[in-house]
Each structure stands twice: as C-alpha cells, then as structure tokens.
Design a protein that fits this description.
The protein is α/β, with parallel strands linked by helices and 257 residues long. Helices cover 41% and strands 15% of the residues. The N and C termini lie close together (10 Å). Bound molecules: 2-phosphoglycolic acid. 2-phosphoglycolic acid (PGA) binds at residues 13, 173, 178-179, 217-220, 238-242.
Length: 257
C-alpha cells in the first residue's frame, strides 16, 4: 500500500461513564500495555469535562496520547448556565473536541447550523474538531445515506476555507451501528468513507481531501478493528463501549494502519 500521509487515529469516547477514580485506573491500565503509536498515529481520549485536566496530566509524558472534550457550546461566552465554551477548553490545555455526535444531535436537538457554529468556535480557539456524521437506520434502509451524509457535511463544514479543512478529522458513525453491537461491514464503511472523501475532494480538491482523517464509529471492538482499519479510506475509529475496556482499546490502537 502506498504510504498514507494522513493521521491514523484511535479515539475513545467515554460518553457519560466512569467516576474519576475509575477513569484514572482505566488510563493507567491502558498505558501499562506500553503500546507506542507510530509517527502517523494518534490516540485521543474524549473524556467527561470534569476529568479533562486529570487525564491530560496522566498523559503528559505520552506524545501520541491526548485528551479531547466531548462537546462545546455553540455560543462564545455569556449567560448559558451549565455550558462549556471552546475558549474554556483551550484555556485548560486541551486541543480537541468532538462535535455533532449523533447522541447530541438526537437528545439535545443539535442541528447542522448549530454545529457549523461549533466548528467555527473550535477553530477560532485552536481546537481540532472531530466532526461526527452518519445516517439513521431509516435513511440507510431507503438507500439515501450518501445524500444524507453529504448534506451534513455541506451544512456544517462547507463554509470553511480550504486551509481549515486540511488535516481535519471526520468520524462517520452510522447511527444504527452505535452501541448496538451491529457494526457496519468493512465494505459498507469503506464505501461511505470513500464517498465522504469524494464529496470533500469535489469541494476542496483531491489533495486536501487526502489529508482528512476519516474515522469509523459504531461498535468497533478489538475483534473487528483490524479488518475495518485495513480499508483504504478508514483512518481509524471513534470507539464508545470498547474504549471502556483497556485491553480491548489497546488492541484497537494496535490495529491502526
Ligand atoms: P460504540 O459508540 O462504539 O459504543 O458503538 C461509538 C460512538 O458513539 O462514538
């Protein structure tokens, strides 16, 4: 295979799980495997807000392991009780945030326009967004997944200039595969990832599209990661359930190209 220039990424999404002690123990267990990701590889742990500082500190000596927020608010600052801004995340030394996870879209009514504002704020404060897209089951069953996902990309990302899109991270997460144990086949994943890259290439040019890391999410496990990640346009995974098990997530890290 020709050498791949874009980053290969194993991203953990802890969601709303674990206490601080449990989270620290999980990170300790994960690091105890001693896996050193390669030069083009990156491990990102998206942990709950209250744990960002502590986990960041545990990873301080590990160049290729880093933390991410799971969300930011779509307004810059002000009277939004309980919300967390991009600037706050940047101010504690965190460099990534997930944006537009399907659970946020579904349970917190986040729409494409709101997510465009979040993408802008994350870039303004120098956070790398991990932008999630993906279709629900009904759309997959009607065969309209390509149109649905390209619309998500167009409405939330395509206002960005080309230089902002270079080295971007997109996570394709078919909703029917999240937390269901029903993984997309590696062919289904590759098909959608290639489609996403094509949509990006049409807007930003092939060269820029080739720099974007496109992660697959939805029931990634130690047992299926290698097969999924071996696909040419699958640049790693965004992992929920299996990221809560250190051995499983370590296997996923070691499955990166
Ligand atoms: P899952 O979640 O791995 O538990 O399916 C993935 C995600 O929601 O990011």
């Amino acid at each position: 295979m020709a050498s791949i220039k874009r980053k290969q990424i194993a991203a953990a999404n802890w969601k709303m799980n674990l206490t601080l002690d449990q989270g620290k123990a999980l990170v300790g267990d994960l690091l105890s495997f001693g896996t050193e990701p390669g030069e083009q590889q990156q491990v990102i742990l998206a942990v709950p807000f209250p744990y960002l500082l502590a986990v960041n500190e545990l990873l301080a000596s590990k160049e290729r392991y880093t933390v991410s927020a799971q969300n930011i608010y779509y307004q810059k600052s002000g009277a939004y009780t309980g919300e967390v801004s991009a600037e706050m995340i940047r101010s504690i030394g965190v460099g990534y945030t997930i944006i537009g996870h399907s659970e946020r879209r579904e349970y917190f009514s986040e729409n494409n326009e709101m997510l465009a504002a979040k993408v802008d704020l994350s870039l303004e404060y120098d956070l790398v967004p991990i932008f999630c897209c993906g279709e629900p089951l009904s759309i997959r069953e009607s065969g309209n997944q390509e149109e649905y996902v390209s619309n998500q990309l167009k409405e939330s990302l395509f206002h960005l200039p080309e230089e902002k899109m270079a080295n971007f991270i997109i996570a394709y997460e078919p909703i029917w595969a999240i937390g269901t144990g029903k993984t997309a086949s590696s062919e289904q994943a590759q098909e959608m990832h290639a489609w996403i890259r094509k949509v990006l290439a049409e807007k930003y040019g092939e060269e820029t599209a080739q720099t974007v890391s496109i992660l697959y999410g939805g029931s990634v496990k130690g047992s299926n990661a290698k097969e999924l990640f071996s696909q040419p346009d699958v640049d790693g995974g965004l992992v929920g359930g299996a990221s809560l098990n250190a051995a499983d997530f370590d296997t996923i890290i070691r499955s990166l190209k």
